[in-house]
From TrEMBL:
GO biological process terms held by the UniProt record: transmembrane transport
Subcellular locations according to the entry: Membrane
Protein name according to UniProt: Solute carrier family 25 member 43
Per-repeat ranges for Solcar: 13-100, 108-202
Main location: membrane
Superkingdom of the organism of origin: Eukaryota
Family: Belongs to the mitochondrial carrier (TC 2.A.29) family.
Topology of the protein relative to the lipid bilayer: Multi-pass membrane protein
Lineage: Eukaryota, Metazoa, Chordata, Craniata, Vertebrata
Coiled-coil residues: none
GO cellular component: membrane
Keywords: Membrane, Repeat, Transmembrane, Transport
Length: 250
């Protein structure tokens, strides 16, 4: 829906408008699902010998009643801001794939699409990871948890968290934990990207636009600008008006 808002009269969208649409979509998704992310972090950092939460519902109930509704959105600011470099980084890689491989995107193999997803995710996650670090620290810190959630620095807000982290851990402290994060997110996006491209080819093949789901070779004589239903109606009319062959000709 957001992409439609940024398209022109011909249905085209520029790269930078696509980045803006992707960033806004990421922000909306982050805000909607953010409380579950806070609960996940709290369940991870709690003391296993003396757990503060018994499960997801208990954590949600306890955080809401002890710390208030806003506690479920603690750290949402760096999460929203982090969506911008993540989207910008992934789109920057995507729009330059043809230059990297020195061939059109439509000729990419499933292995190339997998590598493309891995590279895009790696670049995007590296650029946005400082915001991820601050977000996790803000989610974990709580006066109701032992040792304030065992956060290594104490802070009053997002800006102070950045400052305290750099002061105590150095600039590279903002990228602490990047390696395990990449080991998770890089193959995830590689599989997702290659699966998306393959499913797109299957849909194009089933609607008659390409000859095979294994490549993007266009079907001869098919107007690629037609909508799927328009293409089906055109092919149906051709079959109805095509002269039938006699048994002898068959």
């Amino acid at each position: 829906r957001l992409v439609i808002l940024f398209t022109d009269e011909l249905g085209h969208i520029s790269h930078w408008r696509a980045i803006m649409a992707g960033s806004l979509a990421g922000m909306v998704a982050t805000v909607v699902t953010y409380p579950t992310d806070v609960i996940k972090t709290r369940l991870i950092v709690q003391n296993r010998l003396e757990p503060s939460y018994e499960g997801i519902l208990h954590a949600f109930y306890k955080i809401y009643h002890q710390e208030g509704l806003l506690a479920l959105y603690r750290g949402v600011s760096p999460a929203i801001l982090g969506a911008i470099p993540f989207s910008a980084g992934s789109f920057f890689v995507y729009i330059n794939l043809d230059k990297i491989w020195q061939e059109p995107i439509v000729h990419f193999t499933p292995l190339q699409n997998f590598i493309n997803g891995c590279v895009a995710a790696g670049v995007a996650q590296t650029l946005s990871f400082p915001f991820e670090t601050v977000k996790r620290k803000m989610q974990a810190q709580s006066p109701w948890l032992p040792h304030y959630g065992a956060v290594d620095v104490h802070f009053t807000g997002m800006t102070d968290c950045f400052r305290q982290t750099v002061k105590n851990k150095g600039v590279l402290g903002l990228w602490s934990g990047l390696t395990p994060s990449l080991l998770k997110i890089v193959p995830y996006f590689g599989v997702m990207f290659s699966t998306f491209e393959f499913c797109k080819r299957v849909c194009l093949y089933r609607n008659g636009y390409i000859e095979s789901p294994l490549n993007y070779k266009l079907t001869p004589g098919v107007d690629q600008s037609l909508q799927p239903q328009e293409l089906k109606e055109l092919l149906l009319r051709r079959e109805n008006f095509e002269p039938r062959k006699s048994a002898l000709e068959n």
